[in-house]
Amino acid sequence: MTVSRGRRPGSPDTRAAILDAARTLFASGGFSGTSVRAVAAKAGVDPALVHHYFGTKDDLFVAALALPVDPREVLASVAAEGPDGAAERLLRVFLSVWDDPELQLPLLGLARTLLDPSGKQLLRDGFLKVVIGPIGVALGIDEPERRMPVVASQVLGLILMRYLLEVEPVASMPADEVVGIYAPTIQRYLTGDLS
Amino acid sequence: MTVSRGRRPGSPDTRAAILDAARTLFASGGFSGTSVRAVAAKAGVDPALVHHYFGTKDDLFVAALALPVDPREVLASVAAEGPDGAAERLLRVFLSVWDDPELQLPLLGLARTLLDPSGKQLLRDGFLKVVIGPIGVALGIDEPERRMPVVASQVLGLILMRYLLEVEPVASMPADEVVGIYAPTIQRYLTGDLS
User: Is the same domain home to B46 and B91?
Assistant: First the structure.
C-alpha cells in the first residue's frame, strides 16, 4: 500500500487552474451567481472533472477560500452536541483557530477580503450561506435564517476588534475572558428571546 | 445684528488647508501621533490659528472626519441621563442618524475608511479615544476603558451587517427590532456582569 499523505488526485496544474477560476468567478459573481459549469469553462476543463476533484459547489467554494481548516468540519462537532451551551463551544473552537499564530495569517487575509466592499457578495451569498447558515440548521435552533446573521454581527465585530484593528483590551484578552463576555450574548442570539 | 447662519470665522482657503493637512496627518500618524503644531506646519499657518478656527485637537479631529453630525453632541444627551437604559437610548440615537438616507452616505464613507487596514490607527487612537471612550466616562460606568471597546465590537458588527454588507434580515429590520435584539447586549456590556 502506498502512502498518499492525503494528496488529492489530479494534475496540480489542473487543480490550480480550477481553483483560480473559482476564486475569480466567486469574487465577481458571488456564490449564487457562479456555476460549476462556468468555473469549468473558465478553467478549460469538463464540469465532471471539477466535481471529481472538488465535490459539490459548496466544497469548491470552501476550497477556493483556501482556509487553513475546513470550517464545516470544525463546526460539525459544535453542532452535534445541540443548542445548550453551543455559544461557548462555538467561541472556544473559534478562538482555538483564530488565536493560533500559524492559522491567523491566512484567516486575516480572508477576513479582509470578505469585509472589503468588493467581497460583499462573497460574504453574503457565499460564506454566510455555506458556512454560517448551516450551523444554525445543524443546531436545530428556531429561525436560523434570522438568528445566524445576528450571531455573525457579533462574531465579525469581535474579529474586527481583536484581530484586524487590534483594539485593547479586546485584542489581548485571554480566551476565557472573551468567552465570559461574548458567550452569553451569542447564546441569547442562538436560543434566547430576541422579542 | 447680522445673521451669520452658523458660518465659522476664517478664510475658506485657510480652513480647507488646515483640514486637508489634518486629514493627511491623522490618517498616516493616527490621532496620538499627530500634533496641532504639525498640522499647522503642514498647512503653512500658525498653530494659534488652528486653535482659533477649530478649538482643541479633539475638535480638529472631529472636524477632519467631516461627519454629518458631531457625534459628541448627539451622544451627550444619551450620557446625561445616566447608565440605566443607556443602551436603548444609544441605539435609538445611532439608528436615527444611520437610517437617515442623507446622513448614511458620508457615514458609510467614514466607516469604510476606519475599517480599512490603513485606517486602523485612526479608529483605534482617534475615533475610539475621542468619540467612543468619552461616552463611557460621561455615563459614569465602571471600567469604561474595558467596556467601551466591547460595546464598539457589537456596534461595529451591526454597522457591517446592516449598512456595509447589507445582510438580511439585519439590513431591513425595523429600528424597534434592532433595539429589541441589541439593546440587552449593549446594556450588559455597559453595566452588566462580564465576569
Answer: no
pLDDT tens-place string over residues A63-94: 887 777 777 787 887 888 889 999 999 999 88
Read off the pLDDT of residues B150-180 as tens digits, 9 standing for 90 and up. Answer: 999 999 999 989 998 889 999 999 999 999 9
User: What ipTM score was computed for the predicted complex, to two decimals?
Assistant: 0.79
Chain B residues with CB within 8 Å of chain A CB = 112, 115, 117, 120, 123-124, 128, 145-146, 149-150, 152-158, 160-162, 164-170, 180-181, 184-185, 188-189, 194-195
Residues A176 and A146 in one domain: yes
Residues A41, A75 within the same domain: no
Please report the DSSP string for A120-175 in residue order. Answer: HHIIIIIIIIIIIHHHHHHHT-SSHHHHHHHHHHHHHHHHIIIIIS--TTTTT--H
Same domain, B76 and B152: yes
Q: Test B167 with A184 for CB contact under 8 angstroms.
A: no
**Do residues B4 and B25 make contact, with C-beta atoms less than 8 angstroms apart?**
no
CA dist., res. B113 & res. B102, Å (int): 19
Residue linked to cell 467601551: B148
- Among A149, A167, A168, beta carbon nearest to B161: A149
The tens digit of pLDDT for each residue in A45-68 reads 999 999 999 999 988 988 887 777
A42, part of any domain? yes
Q: For A153, which of B112, B124, B157 is closest by C-beta distance?
A: B157
Say if B57 falls within a structural domain: yes
B5 in a structural domain: no
Please give the interface size between A and B, counted as residue pairs whose CB atoms are below 8 Å apart. Answer: 102
CATH code, A113: 1.10.357.10
C-alpha to C-alpha distance for A162 and A157, rounded to whole angstroms: 8
The reply to whether B53 and B92 lie within a common domain is: no
**Residue B30's domain spans which residues?**
14-65
Distance (Å) from the C-alpha of residue B53 to the closest C-alpha of chain A? 31
- My answer on whether B150 and B55 are in the same domain is no
**Distance of alpha carbon A53 from alpha carbon A48, whole angstroms:** 9
Give A168's contacts in chain B (Cβ within 8 Å).
149
